[in-house]
Amino acid sequence: MLAAEAAFSALQEGSSMDMYWDALRKSWIWEELRLARNYRPAFEYGLLPGLGVSAFEHYVFKGRLPFTLKHGKPDHEATDVAKRHPPIEYPRPDGTLSFDVPTSLHRSNTNHDHDQPPHLRLRDPTVPERVNLPEYAGPESRYCPARVYEYVPDEEGKLKLHINAQNCLHCKACDIKDPKQNIEWTVPEGGGGPGYSIM
After folding, report:
1. What DSSP element (H or E) covers 3?
2. Is the pTM of this model over 0.85?
3. Is residue 113's pLDDT more than 90?
4. In order of start, what are the domains of the chain with their CATH numbers?
């Protein structure tokens, strides 16, 4: 809402979008984020140290430690090459605790106009087949919860990345987690995306 108000003001009054940051810093959101700022980076040191530091910060210091822990590295740099790890065999969805993709997409009420410009773009269209598939075993097909990205064989039987942008839940995992930062997520035209009205 703060971003929308700042954008409206910028369009109507010609003011700067810097007023968004001023409004954000004065809001309850800023204080809440500041109090929780060390929870995630604490786990860089492992599960038990992370739990200990987070509990200490939450219950003793109430989020007011005099320093801020830093993240070790961005998420996309944490993706390791596939040959160093055994493949994971996931159990089939049971329909009670886990669900198949079509059911989950139906429940999210995701909708994008079929003729809108794609909101998921590849900076370099050769990276998926040249780098991601051979080195990382095509991580796009696994980190996306809606199976927007899938490798399908072409006429010659070579696997090619196919993007099902109409399934996108706008989680931005692809923008954050892609090992080569090759996927650019942009706001879709016309406000398409998940509706979550039947969950």
Report:
1. helix 2-13
2. no
3. no
4. 1-71 (no CATH), 82-194 (3.30.70.20)
